[in-house]
Amino acid sequence: MKYRLTRHAQEEIRQRGIPLTLVESVLAHPQQVIPEREGRKIYQSQIDFGSGKLFLLRVIVNDDVDPVIVITVYRTSRIQKYWR
């Protein structure tokens, strides 16, 4: 999938130490896609970042444009809260 990172997304990926390869993996093959407000969707997958514990990697995108714009990226341990 072709995509473009906003400056905010670039900063969040760097600050949170999220490998870009994982972001690309979620964009290409998300376990779930959740519609958000108009023009935005959340691509998310459960991922082990190497500690043996699962986290939810959430990639918020505007996919109404080409290429897709990644607005922000974060991981959370609160899988039950966001998993549908």
Chain-wise SSE layout:
Layout: E1 3-5, H1 7-16, H2 20-28, E2 32-35, E3 40-48, E4 54-62, E5 68-76, H3 79-82
Parallel strand pairs: 1-5
Antiparallel strand pairs: 2-3, 3-4, 4-5
C-alpha-based Rg, rounded: 12 Å
Domain count: the total is 1
- Major sheet size, sense and barrel closure: 5 strands, mixed
Give the N-to-C terminal Cα separation.
24 Å
Tell me the number of helical segments per DSSP (H or I, 4 or more residues long): 3
Q: Which class do the helix and strand fractions yield?
A: alpha+beta
Portion in beta strands: 35-45%
Q: Percentage of helical residues?
A: 25-40%
Taken from the alpha-carbon principal axes, the silhouette is globular
SSE series: EHHEEEEH
Q: Which ranges are low-confidence, i.e. pLDDT below 50, for 5 or more consecutive residues?
A: none
Strand order within the widest beta sheet: 1-5-4-3-2
Number of strands: 5
Rounded mean pLDDT is 95
Question: Can you put this structure into words, describing what you see?
Answer:
Helix content is 27%, strand content 40%. It is of the alpha+beta class. The chain starts with a strand and ends with a helix. The model has no long low-confidence stretch (mean pLDDT 95). It is globular, with a radius of gyration of 12 Å. It has a five-stranded mixed sheet. The protein has one domain (3-82).
Entry keywords:
84 residues, globular, alpha+beta, single chain, 5-stranded mixed beta sheet
